[in-house]
Amino acid sequence: MSSGAQMQQTQQQRPNSELGGVVVLDFGGQYTQLIARRIREQQVFSSVLPCTTTLDEIRKFEPSGIVLSGGPSSVYDPQAPKCDVNVLALGIPVLGICYGMQWLTHHLGGKVEPAERREYGSAVLNIENTDHKSELFAEFPKSLRIWNSHGDHVVGLPPGFRTVGRTQNAVAAVEDAQRKIYAVEFHPEVRHTDRGTEILRNFLFRVCKAEKKWSGAAFIEETTEAIRTKVGNHRVICALSGGVDSTVAAVLVHRAIGDRLTNIFVNTGLLRKNEFEDTLEMLRDRLGLRVIGVDASERFLSQLKGVTEPERKRKLIGAEFISVFADQAMELQKNEAHGEIAYLVQGTLYPDVIESVSVKGPSATIKTHHNVGGLPEKMPFALIEPLRDLFKDEVRRIGRDLGLPNELLVKHPFPGPGLAVRVLGEVNAESLVTLREADAVVVDEIRRAGLYEKVWQAFAVLLPVRSVGVMGDYRTYGLTIAVRVVESEDAMTADWVRLPGDVLERISTRIVNEVPGVTRVVYDISSKPPGTIEWE
Question: Which of 196, 349, 407, 440 is most exposed, with the fewest beta carbons within 10 Å of its own?
């Protein structure tokens, strides 16, 4: 795996495991990050770069292959995303996917038109019978089911290209094998495409001749060395939450600089039931980390008073986090002046970056995460984000390689802004108590049903909705709790879990009986997309 300790800076010399991989040029497609993830699953490094990235920047990765991603635009749109057409003349194998196929066809002299019948969803790919079968489809059957999402299609091939696959309505796969330029109109990276991973694998190893260098051991070695070099003799503080991400980040930094790392765990007042006390005990006693617990709950609740807009909540919480850390750093500096505290470590992941900042060319910001886009522009210390380029499953594998306890590694993701984004509307102490109790019931019943390690997240949301109910002999006008349980691989997409009826019944019954003021429980059956996992 690559050194995530790039720490937002371009290094003169990239780690060995980053060289010779695949560069994914992003045209704003919803599956771009999934392409990168599928490549990494084959132990080949992949980096997602905006489609506007210069050729010199691309060359720094010494890539064995380049992928042109999908995107929502037409090549004829005035604002259609573009990249340097000379990327097709570098002598490096290229795979265009969806919009990527249309873009390279258009720029190499082919013809693209709006389709009379758009192709969205499942279709059958028929592979052309020729004397020279495409390397992409080596040892494939004559047909397979694929997943489409496009409105334009290719109607004329550029010089030197041939058609190697069709659907009922369109040319679906083309190639110029001599120039090693390949393209597909469908999405091999999604699970709905049969043998999609094999298509990517054929591109990686048959066409690009890529080497398998992306491993947990390489990541740990390269990242700790990069952190050690970057930090020098300075001191570092880590924003530790007790979750998988920040804990793995802390252990990596601790390996690099030892006791010059001080971990700070902040009680924002927005944590789950008993989480502050239980987490401090685990971090100190079981992991042996140096951790300072800071109770700043009153500060955060004061900032959130009267605030109902979700994005405003996230920005305020991000700013207050930095403020708390700045105060703590000054206190540490005053009492332990053995070196300058110059860096803040955070457990930012790739999906956090994707959903917060437009790093993907023309993509749109979905929401602000407290440890990315929500940070104030002027901070008293620079950031170290060793996991910034990793997906959640990769972080868990790194955690196992580092020897972290399994109960920590299977812990469900928890949003940086905490329960503030699960209390819809204004956040106050009373609403937080209600939500904590309901959330504890949800997690407890999911554990009792043996489902905790089988789902991605399970939690409760307090809605700003009251409804009429009957409890005993009295009519009530009580609160409503929504229960959210989803399955996912990387938080980029998610589906709601079909919980057994008896589990839902126990959750509902317990919440209504054990949480004062709640008279109604509903179950969220929305997928991502179109909804997000969190409600705010």
Answer: 407
- Are 51 and 82 in contact by the 8 Å Cβ rule? The answer is yes
Phi, psi of 117 (to 5 degrees): -120, 105
Non-local (6+) Cβ contacts of 180 within 8 A are: 92, 93, 94, 207
% of the chain residues with pLDDT over 70: 89
- Tell me the three-class secondary structure of 497-523, residue by residue: CCCCHHHHHHHHHHHHHHCCCEEEEEE
Write down the pTM of the prediction. 0.71
Catalytic positions? 98, 187, 189
User: What residues form DSSP beta bridges with 496?
Assistant: 486
Task: Give the largest Cα separation in the chain, rounded.
Answer: 81
Helix, strand, coil share of the chain (percent; to 5) = 35, 25, 40
Q: How far apart are CA 100 and CA 373, in angstroms?
A: 28
Beta strands (DSSP E) in 422-505 are 457-471, 474-487, 495-496
Handedness of CA 389, 392, 397, 403 (dihedral sign): positive
For residue range 218-262, what is the model confidence (pLDDT) as tens digits? Answer: 889 989 999 999 999 898 988 888 888 999 999 999 999 998 999
Nearest to 204 by CA among 42, 445, 397, 60: 42
